[in-house]
Amino acid sequence: MTDTDTVGPVRIDLGPCTCATPDVHTNDWVEIFRHAPYQMGLAALESIAQSSTPIELGVALRQVYVVWGVNNWNLIDDKGKSINVTRETIALQLMADWSDRTVAVIEACARQFNDEVMLPLQTAASKQLNNGQIEALTSQNRASRREQAKHSRPSSPTSSAAGNTSVAQGG
Ligand SMILES: [Zn+2]
């Protein structure tokens, strides 16, 4: 599952095919977005608002990352037809049970999206609260972002996954 590309979706190998029609392909795969889509950010905001414990939030966010993160797959139905990727089919195909496949997708999505989704929220939160402690925690991050801003056009949403500070301590 090495991924050295810098553009395009990220492919996750799910192992031997378990589709309803066998022998069409040997392995199943899922592709996730390389960068967090807008809706994922919104859904994450909502999860933060509605979760009352870190565990609850962790569960909610992982769900969000998979539901909004899966972009494509090669899964086929019992007639050998490609299954459209929708939030409903994602739930049916990838969240119906707890398996190696499920975990592979969840972990890949968390790796891909957690920092990218959390960083802007953290920056916003620290501005709102104007809390010295949070300021201190994130100042290093913000300094490096300012540094980046000097070198890149301000309009380009650079996906700086730099810095490991995150609101939700995901795995
Ligand atoms: Zn298959």
Bin the strand percentage.
5-15%
Shape: elongated
N-to-C terminal Cα separation, in Å?
19 Å
The helix/strand class is mainly alpha
The main sheet orders its strands as: 1-2-3
> Cofactors and ligands present?
zinc ion
Unreliable segments of 5+ consecutive residues: 154-166
What Rg do the Cα atoms give? 18 Å
Number of strands: 3
Q: How would a textbook summarize the main sheet? A: 3 strands, antiparallel
Helical coverage, percent range: 40-55%
Number of helices: 5
Mean pLDDT: 82
SSE string: EEHHEHHH
Describe the structure.
- This protein has 171 residues and is mostly helical.
- It has a domain at 10-121.
- 51% of the residues lie in helices and 10% in strands.
- It contains five helices and three strands; from the N terminus they run E-E-H-H-E-H-H-H.
- It has helices spanning 38-50, 54-69, 87-94, 100-129, 132-151; strands at 10-16, 27-32, 70-73.
- A three-stranded antiparallel β-sheet has the order 1-2-3.
- Helix 4 (100-129) crosses helix 5.
- The protein is elongated.
- Mean pLDDT is 82; it is low at 154-166.
- Zinc ion (ZN) binds at residues 17, 19, 25, 28, 75-76.
Q: In brief, what are we looking at here?
A:
The chain is 51% helix and 10% strand. It has 171 residues and is mostly helical.
Which helices and strands occur, and which strands form pairs?
Elements: E1 10-16, E2 27-32, H1 38-50, H2 54-69, E3 70-73, H3 87-94, H4 100-129, H5 132-151
Antiparallel strand pairs: 1-2, 2-3
